[in-house]
Write a structure and sequence with these properties.
The complex is a heterodimer of chains A (250) and B (167). Chain A is an alpha+beta fold and 250 residues long. In chain A, the strands form two sheets. Chain A has a three-stranded antiparallel beta sheet. Chain A has a three-stranded antiparallel beta sheet with strand order 4-5-6. In chain A, a hairpin with a 5-residue loop joins strand 1 and strand 2. In chain A, helix 4 packs across helix 6. The termini of chain A are far apart. Chain B is mainly alpha-helical and 167 residues long. Chain B has two domains: 59 residues; 69 residues, no CATH class. Classes of the chains: A alpha+beta (250), B mainly alpha (167).
Chain lengths: 250, 167
């Protein structure tokens, strides 16, 4: 009898552990997945998963929101869009590690014998012998969701790559995002505003000398800068990743 | 006396003939209403679009024909194809709405780079927040009518709507 109870307890522990792992899969230290649903006026319904930055909060009309960095519009080669989004979450986290080790992000066409068509973003190592690692797929099925300016998946992949890099620079490395090629788009310039406000917060509130403030911006400085944005600017910040904006040389 | 008898007979005969004529006349059928076949077809097409939840396209088509629209004929076609009167009222009201023109204006300005996507999002969030469904549909239809390809316009506005309302 004792054996059966013991086995039952182990069984329960295993189940709870599996469930905990599944929950973990929806959020890592830097990123999380958020489901967004909408009902259009005609009654059509649509929902997507978005890869968002974890940690920073944006209050819009009193509601806490996360900053989206990659919308997962279709299931691509996966069974469900949820499966794809979990894959995206894991790959994005791995990409951060790769970038810390000197790898760079590059846009490349999907492999000819691969399981999807379009362009994708890869973390490419400097060492020739090592293989690149896939980060984001831009499937042909995703293309029309990025708006009327999205002409092909290469263009969208370039935009997503630029957004991922500029968001990483500001929010995760807490560095100046001004040199990013994405800074040409009006809405992305909000990131520069946040950077300047965060530096000012560091100087005025935490008394950091101006010559050092660029290297000593903290998470709290950036969060304060986000809180200081107007509601309209916050909405723009939350929509940067959704649609290809107007601009030259994407 | 003689004349009176003759007159009476004449009146009786003429009354008889009159009644006989009425009785033999073929029964008059109720007049068949003549519907405009083009309007019937338009109504059927609109009903099909509404059935497939493509209200925006139905509203655009209706808006284009507003000046020459024969409402009763079109409604007949709409109902023949299984459309409901309340749906007809919805799309007709939307096609006549001020919001249709507002949407068209926003779509045209976005295409001409005089507005940014975030401006459209702002309008959806603020001005359409408490608007009726008719007005939302009218804006939707107006916006996508500014595009040469309505599917491209719909896809773009779908994403902007997601951006605006999922916050």
């Amino acid at each position: 009898m004792k054996k059966i109870i013991f086995m039952f307890i182990i069984f329960l522990m295993l189940i709870s552990n599996i469930q905990a792992q599944q929950m973990d899969a929806l959020s890592t230290k830097e990123f999380l997945l958020e489901k967004k649903s909408v009902t259009y006026p005609s009654g059509r319904e649509f929902s997507i998963w978005t890869l968002c930055l974890n940690g920073y909060r944006v209050l819009v009309s009193g509601q806490k929101r996360y900053i989206p960095i990659f919308p997962i519009y279709s299931e691509s080669c996966f069974k469900t869009s949820r499966d794809r989004s979990i894959d995206v979450l894991e790959r994005a986290s791995n990409a951060l590690d790769s970038l810390l080790h000197g790898e760079t992000l590059e846009v490349l066409p999907a492999p000819e014998n691969g399981n999807f068509s379009g362009f994708s973003i890869w973390a490419v190592p400097h060492v020739q012998e090592e293989h690149p690692g896939l980060v984001f797929r831009i499937d042909d099925a995703d293309l029309h969701h990025f708006g009327f300016r999205a002409e092909n998946t290469r263009q969208v992949a370039n935009y997503v790559k630029n957004i991922f890099e500029v968001m990483r620079t500001l929010f995760l490395r807490r560095s100046n995002p001004s040199n990013s090629p994405a800074m040409q788009y009006p809405d992305v310039k909000i990131l520069k505003r946040i950077w300047l406000d965060a530096r000012q917060h560091a100087e005025k509130i935490r008394n950091i000398p101006p010559e050092k403030s660029a290297y000593l911006v903290t998470f709290e400085d950036i969060q304060e800068a986000i809180d200081m944005l107007s509601e309209s600017q916050k909405i723009r910040l939350l929509g940067i990743a959704f649609v290809i904006p107007e601009g030259e040389g994407i | 006396m003689m004349y009176n008898i003759i007159y009476s007979w004449l009146i009786i005969v003429s009354l008889f003939l009159l009644l006989e004529g009425c009785a033999n006349r073929p029964p008059q059928e109720p007049p068949i209403p003549k519907y405009d076949s083009a309007m019937l077809k338009l109504g059927e097409d609109l009903a099909l679009l509404v059935k497939n939840k493509r209200h925006e396209e139905a509203i655009i088509r209706l808006n284009k024909r507003l000046n020459t629209l024969k409402k009763q004929d079109c409604l007949k076609g709409f109902e023949n194809a299984g459309g409901l009167k309340k749906e007809w009222d919805l799309i007709l009201q939307a096609a006549n709405s001020y919001e249709f023109e507002a949407g068209k204006n926003y779509g045209a300005k976005l295409l001409a780079s005089k507005l940014q996507d975030a401006d459209v999002v702002e309008y959806i969030r603020v001005s359409l927040k408490n608007a009726s469904n008719v007005n939302k549909l009218a804006f939707y239809a107006g916006f996508i009518s500014a595009f040469k390809n309505v599917d491209v316009g719909r896809n773009h506005l779908d994403t902007l709507w997601l951006w605006a309302t999922s916050h």
